[in-house]
């Protein structure tokens, strides 16, 4: 795993977006697994600007949403699909059928999970990090080869989800791309910003590689970068 620390949040946004434009130029048919959460939103906004100014195109690319909350109505703005659509998908030149999301409200969730993702695996996986080291909704204790599946959320994740909603009917479960397909991605970028992520960034880099700290498993990946701003990278 490469640890890359940018001098400021602005440099982090520009740096990650510039890498992303490069990957799209090299492989216009890039298949991507994308998170929501608050961390990547400024990068998505930068990519929207890049598409509008003609410096990037998603017209041949495909996107799969990393995870989705269960028991949240389809029109709730805090639903992860709606967040990703608002901040990226609806503002770029992605083909309408090139954007895929898990829908936990449908009865065929197991079947959706089995079929989710591109045939050859993801070219690029972007991830945020939970304070407990989770990746997507792969909570501590998830197996390194876990498939895409329904999962129960840990209490700290449920509490942290409050910041995505304007009500207190918080999700207790969800569906997530598993650690298996994440770790099989060709290239993985783990994103962290702000002082509140400094401890978990340090643990990911220093602690033993262990399923109790899912993000640490990425240290075994041959092409993974931990991309942090100055505050998140203050302690390694
Ligand atoms: P955040 O969430 O980007 O909103 O901090 C990350 C996560 O919990 O995976």
CATH level 3 topology:
Rossmann fold
The DSSP helix count reads 7
Ligands and ions found: 2-phosphoglycolic acid
What fraction of the residues are assigned to beta strands by DSSP?
15-25%
For the report, how would you describe the main beta sheet? 7 strands, parallel
Q: Helicity level, as a percent range?
A: 25-40%
So what's the CATH class? Answer: Alpha Beta
User: Using only CA atoms, what is the Rg?
Assistant: 17 Å
Secondary structure tally: strands: 10
Instruction: Please state the average pLDDT score.
Output: 97
CATH architecture label name: 3-Layer(aba) Sandwich
Shape: globular
Span of the ends, CA to CA: 13 Å
Order of helices and strands: EHEHEEHEHEEHEHEHE
Enumerate the strands of the largest sheet in spatial order, edge to edge or round the barrel: 1-10-9-6-2-3-5
Query: How many domain modules?
Result: 1
SSE class: alpha/beta
Sequence stretches where pLDDT stays below 50 over 5 or more residues: none
Question: Would you kindly provide a written description of the structure presented here, covering whatever features stand out?
Answer:
- Strand 9 (187-192), helix 7 (198-206) and strand 10 (224-228) form a beta-alpha-beta unit.
- The chain is an alpha/beta fold and 236 residues long.
- 28% of the residues lie in helices and 17% in strands.
- The chain has a single domain (2-228), classed as Rossmann fold, CATH 3.40.50.1360.
- Bound molecules: 2-phosphoglycolic acid.
- 2-phosphoglycolic acid binds at residues 37-39, 128-130.
């Amino acid at each position: 795993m490469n640890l890359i620390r940018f001098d400021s949040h602005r440099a982090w946004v520009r740096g990650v977006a510039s890498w992303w434009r490069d990957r799209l130029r090299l492989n216009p048919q890039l298949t991507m697994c994308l998170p929501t959460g608050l961390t990547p939103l400024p990068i998505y906004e930068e990519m929207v600007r890049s598409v509008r100014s003609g410096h990037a195109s998603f017209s041949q690319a495909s996107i799969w949403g990393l995870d989705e909350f269960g028991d949240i109505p389809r029109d709730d703005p805090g639903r992860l699909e709606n967040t990703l659509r608002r901040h990226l998908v609806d503002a770029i030149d992605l083909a309408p059928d090139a954007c895929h999301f898990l829908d936990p409200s449908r009865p065929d969730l197991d079947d959706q999970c089995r079929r989710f993702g591109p045939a050859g695996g993801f070219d690029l996986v972007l991830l945020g990090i939970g304070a407990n080291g989770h990746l997507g909704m792969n909570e501590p204790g998830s197996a390194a080869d876990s498939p895409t599946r329904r999962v129960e959320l840990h209490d700290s994740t449920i509490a942290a989800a409050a910041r995505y909603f304007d009500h207190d009917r918080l999700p207790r479960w969800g569906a997530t791309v598993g650690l298996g397909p994440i770790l099989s991605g060709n290239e993985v970028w783990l994103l962290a910003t702000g002082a509140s992520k400094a401890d978990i960034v340090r643990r990911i880099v220093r602690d033993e590689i262990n399923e109790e700290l899912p993000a640490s498993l990425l240290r075994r990946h041959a092409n993974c970068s931990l991309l942090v701003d100055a505050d998140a990278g203050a302690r390694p």
